[in-house]
Design goal:
Structural class: alpha/beta
CATH topology of one domain: Rossmann fold
Shape: globular
InterPro entries: Diverse_substrate_MTase (IPR051052), Methyltransf_11 (IPR013216), SAM-dependent_MTases_sf (IPR029063)
Keywords: Methyltransferase, Transferase
GO molecular function, one term: methyltransferase activity
Family: Belongs to the methyltransferase superfamily.
CATH architecture of one domain: 3-Layer(aba) Sandwich
Protein name: Methyltransferase
Order of helices and strands: HHEHEHEEHEHEEHHHE
Strand content: 15-25%
Radius of gyration: 18 Å
Length: 248
């Protein structure tokens, strides 16, 4: 469940793709959101919130939602989209929040960026005893042949599902997680899939020629398969993997 590519990816590269990220990345199934929010937490922190794709799903008009994001361009996109949510600068390893001040800390497509021991300890500091850490990833379902070919063309690394997936790395004081895997389908266009590829941090680090090559390879895959060619709406299968950890 990594988005890196050959060790060259830097989280800072998201600064350059904040706008396209906000409009091209998929949302999350409501079933996964409800599972992570089980117990009706009053204060929820969305860490590595990016442009707020998951943050907006946490709001109910009653609970307090705080977005923590290190990238200034990403925070600007989030504030423009959901101005009623407090967005603060910070990261999983360092949050500007009081001790024992949150009931749930969520990392959506973000835990793979953290220093695991440091982030685990920081989340434990911010959570109240009995509070939860939630991790969630959208994974392309590469049990489907054309989706696996798409992943190869994208040069993607790790954000796929092939029937099994390892638990995320986690540190003290968290133990074994509860797990949820939700299959669903994103209805999208070829242009939206290519925009999704262009929103990725590793893509921003490629040369212009390399970017053109990747985009052309993705387009070729989509044109080659009966389910994705001819300008039709594409049904891209995903599995959303979620994990819940309880703070002792």
């Amino acid at each position: 469940m990594r988005e890196g590519h050959e060790g060259t990816t830097s989280a800072a590269s998201f600064d350059a793709v904040a706008e396209i990220y906000a409009r091209s990345r998929p949302s999350y199934p409501q079933e996964s959101v409800d599972w992570l929010l089980d117990g009706d937490p009053a204060v929820v922190v969305d860490v590595g919130a990016g442009t707020g794709l998951f943050t907006r799903l946490l709001r109910d008009g009653i609970r307090t939602v705080i977005a923590v994001e290190p990238s200034a361009p990403m925070r600007e996109e989030l504030r423009a989209a959901i101005p009623d949510v407090e967005a603060v600068q910070g990261a999983g390893e360092r949050m500007p929040l009081r001790d024992a001040s949150a009931d749930l800390a969520v990392f959506a497509q973000a835990w793979h960026w953290v220093d695991v021991p440091a982030a685990s300890a920081e989340v434990a500091r911010v959570l109240r005893p009995g509070g939860r850490l939630g991790l969630v990833w959208n994974l392309r379902d590469e049990r489907v042949e054309w989706v696996r070919a798409l992943g190869v063309a994208m040069r993607a690394d790790g954000d796929h599902f092939r029937g099994t997936v390892e638990d995320p790395g986690i540190g003290h004081p968290f133990g074994t997680p509860e797990r949820s895997f939700v299959p669903w389908v994103r209805r999208c266009t070829q242009e939206e899939i290519i925009a999704d590829v262009r929103s990725r941090s590793y893509f921003a680090l490629l040369t212009a020629a390399q970017q053109d090559h990747v985009a052309a390879a993705v387009e070729a895959v989509l044109q080659a398969h009966a389910l994705t060619s001819g300008g039709r709406v594409i049904e891209l299968p995903y599995v959303t993997a979620s994990y819940r950890y309880t703070r002792p």
